[in-house]
Amino acid sequence: MSPTRQSLQITAANPDPALLDLPWHVPLEDWPQENLAALPRGISRHIVRFVRLSGRVIAVKEIGETVAYREYELLRQLSRIDVPSVEPVGVITGRRDPDGEPLEAVLITEHLQFSLPYRALFSQSLRPDTATRLIDALAVLLVRLHLAGFYWGDVSLSNTLFRRDAETFAAYLVDAETGDLHHNLTVGQREYDLEVARVNIIGELMDLQAGEFLEEDVDAVAIGNALAERYTELWRALTEVESFGYGERWRVQARIDRLNDLGFDVGELDITTDVDGTTVRIQPKVVDAGHHSRRLMRLTGLDVQENQARRLLNDLDEYRAATDRQREDEAFVAHDWLTEIFEPAVRSVPKKFRKKLEPAQIYHELLDHRWYLSQQQHRDVPMADVVKSYVANVLPDRPDEQAILGVQSGDLRDTEQLPRIEDDIILG
Amino acid sequence: MSEWTTSTDTLHNGSSGTYLPVKGLISMATVTFDHATRIYPGTERPAVDALNLAVEDGEFLVLVGPSGCGKSTSLRMLAGLEDVNSGSILIGDRDVTDVQPKDRDIAMVFQNYALYPHMTVADNMGFALKIAGTPKAEIRQRVEEAAKILDLSQYLDRKPKALSGGQRQRVAMGRAIVRQPQVFLMDEPLSNLDAKLRVQTRTQIASLQRRLGVTTVYVTHDQTEALTMGDRIAVLKDGVLQQVGTPRDMYDTPNNVFVAGFIGSPAMNIGTFPVLDGSANLGRARVPLERSVISQLTEDDRNHITVGFRPESLDLVPAGEGIPVVVNIVEELGSDAFVYGSLTNEFGHADAVHSGAGDAQIIVRVDPRRVPDKGETIYVRIRGGEQHLFHAGTGERIDA
Q1: Which of B109, B151, B315, B379 is least surrounded by CB atoms within 10 angstroms?
Q2: Is B12:B92 a contact under the CB 8 Å cutoff?
């Protein structure tokens, strides 16, 4: 690194000294290849690069100083209230090039391991309902953000990352630049976010069609509208007031069960009765996502996504039934399941394949594969055989998703060259 | 309240692309805040308190004030993002107080301007109309009209990649223009730019707005931006509208001490002094007051008056006359020079005066070819008739 007269100001909760070795005196656009990680980038109005740092990958975004600090703070608040979002690493200001010209501040975030930008998902030609599953994940994220009082301002597929979550996806917020955290959102804020999301998603899908990444006959408008529908459905289920006669009190538990099914825990439920006590009104006041993942965590210590947890819990239940231990304490059975079933299965995947998928996702696929083999062979295929077949026949063809995401070099070139808008000129 | 849109006002369905505005046919896109109030849950003081403001059709109105003054909240109330707890908001004759943001026929500019790489410039500009189901021919027509205004006509069939940064920005602007909204809303769009570009860009936005003639409400905390861009400026403080007027009005006849100190750079010198023998007493210096001014003083003023004088309203006078100022710094700007100086207690209560430079400090514009030295004492006098007088009690302006 050439020495440069710059006095860097680094704001970070947990600064990594290796940050200092990066070429901050060079505009991000011109950073040497050796520093970069070859990850596909979404559409952004800023220059964004993925950078290798101490064996991990960070995302670096050039952005105005005040906005950088603001977004850093917002991301910190979001992770504090446990909303799925990228972890902020820090803000660096005071950058200068060797001629002493000031360079833009940068916001640094942690790259989300095993995460997939929507462009990478489409270029992998996944199942045709990928779009629908992405939309479902985004709807859940948006509802969770809105429940937490976060107004996004620029909801889009580009501003979201996706992680596999059993047969679905879990969505993470990656760009909070236009967002605001409020005590409560107004209907107008939620509606506006939803409308922006709808228009952006349709635009992004139309763009994929224009680039021939997505079939011409996919109805982009219908997919965008589906987000609005899915969101509205979920919002209702989580927040709507429900009234029923006093004799129908079972509906309280039914509501709680329904929310659990949707993956939410009820933290606080408002129950009111009218004066003569004939009508009961209930409304969930505090709901927390992650019902299944919390339960699995409590039982096994495994920290996984919601639908992965659902799948693993089902397998745990099966194990419990198969070993006839329904009367035993669930926590003991869970411990045995973990050590006898889950861990041996995941560990029997050779090391070189472990970067392909998260362990919980691998286990989910093993369960799928066991079902497939058992169907084929008309018998219960033991897990050890399943693992062998899976490692031999399925896993080698899977892309490496820990960091590289299996994007073909051709696709990568396409995402590398995405045009962006120079921040420095609003109306040239 | 979705049924609202279908009833009275078919001409205003612009965002769904159902009409092309023809000059003279559509009603005026005025914006009216009528006692509009926003109180955030859990707070007592309104963030915006009974705002009354009428924005004319085609006008560029700037909302300006320090942070927390309610300017962004006012804009978001107009956008439909903040609830209006009492009062109402009208666009044209239509009460939009309870209308959803997307049905208000407004465009928030510069919120989302990432361009789609595989779409042509024309598609980038027109895709929102396509979503709304606007007929192809009409989309093309609107895109071409917008491209003409934005000097993008020859690039319509290219991909964004082939454009310069500035051209890409204009495509993004075009996206808002083709929707033909009745009102553009802009919330600190320049806050992310460095000082030099901010200056360039603000004139470009202002001139584009004038070419388009679309009613625009613009929020900034920067009074220079407000003065240079707005047809009129509305100054807010603590959720309360202080004054609305042209940049000239605000500068020449500020309604109160707050506006006087907020508008103008460097800021006005303002001090509160006792009234003795028909003059404001600035120590040994005196500012004679007209009898009509003195008759307007109230008990609340406790026989004091607040006097404001801009840096350019001071004349240098021979030593011993006027107000002595000890020179701390001279700021030379080529065309102008400003002395930042301290007052001395010998001449009244120095700390009664404040300016943009701080308490007991005043700013004096001097001839850039004859600047005093640091540490020197200069003597200044307020040029006759150029003082601004305010009630010491309420801070309201007193006109003779």
Answers
A1: B151
A2: yes
